[in-house]
Amino acid sequence: MTSVPEILQFSIRSARHCPAWLSGAESIDGFRRTACWKAFFGYLIDVSTQVAPRDVRGRDEPLSRWSRPATVKSPSAVSRFCNHYSWNIRAVIRAMRQHALDEFERFRRVPYSHQQRLELIVDMTSLHKEGKFEQLEPWIHRFNGVNGVHLVVLYLCHGSRRFPWSFLVWRGKGQPSPADLALKMLTRLPDELVKRHSRVPLVLADAGFCSKAFIAGVVQLGLKVSITIPSNRVTAQGHPIGQVTRQRQAITLPGLPDLRLWLYWVWLSNSGDGTRKKRYVISTLNVVPDTIRANGRKRWRIEALFKTLKSRFGLHRSGQYTKRGMLRYCCLCFLSDVLCHLETLEDASASARVWPDWRAVAQQLRRKYCGLVRLSELRKEIQTIEDVLDCVLLI
Description:
Elements: H1 6-16, H2 34-41, H3 63-66, H4 75-83, H5 89-108, E1 119-128, E2 140-143, E3 146-158, E4 161-169, H6 178-187, H7 191-194, E5 202-205, H8 212-220, E6 224-229, E7 249-253, E8 256-269, E9 276-283, H9 289-299, H10 301-311, H11 323-346, H12 348-352, H13 358-394
């Protein structure tokens, strides 16, 4: 069995003394308080405090090659916790979403926040899987050269607030496409999140989501969209997109005759050989090209999220063999990222940096909140020892 990230080592310790809301026994209102749920889940981010050794070229080695085995609980105990133990992951998801709504509402009261749009970014990431997983068989497929589980993720960004909202599993050919899954998640967004902004939220996506059904569905929801489109697509008049010579040109696509779109392009540099590639973008926004380029840079935030989840929080190292275990593992990884992001919002020095040092943030969060968990365990152990001594003295 592959080694287990320590975000789940510490979650095993919480299962023994979990509060009642985890099993659905009482309301989660108290759990919505920031201090409460950060104190309870703060130790899930321990994996990000590990330091990767360097290879002969001075690069960080992959986590899968050097991660240490579980020390708090065995891998089998972690597997039981994710796959068999009865605890309510939906309560955790609801609390995360409610806290995200509270943070967005708090940010709306900040001066000049109305000048920034709420960005709804969708993208797909793949979790490589090897071996046989009978219970995960409907979820394991090959996509873009990767065999494994493929997640379509919805990421919400508004100013400095960034929260992963939901994800769905792509089930292969013949099932709803990634674009259909993304549209499904956008449809489920609460009205208090989408309709309470002075500016209409903007959906950002790459060329994998540029289907006619997705674009029409987003517009029908009352949202703006800016999406990459392949150069070989043609307009309703039969002209290839790649032959357009002027930016900010109004076009229509086949099957969408009543929807006017605006065509732009951006140049992306290849860090390998220094060449530049031309990428075309269609948008319902009639703005200057510089605004489209700025929105395109914002779309890369979800790529940064995937990189952080995999390199620091062990998202790609899931060895779970059931659907329940896989979903719980992914949710805990997303939760770890949210906890560290909230910590950067509270720390002015960390939030001022363009790219936070996630290891330093995780260490700070661990010192602030993990000590409370350990002290609670020590108090319970002391009480147990005192009870035993009382029994011995009575004898």
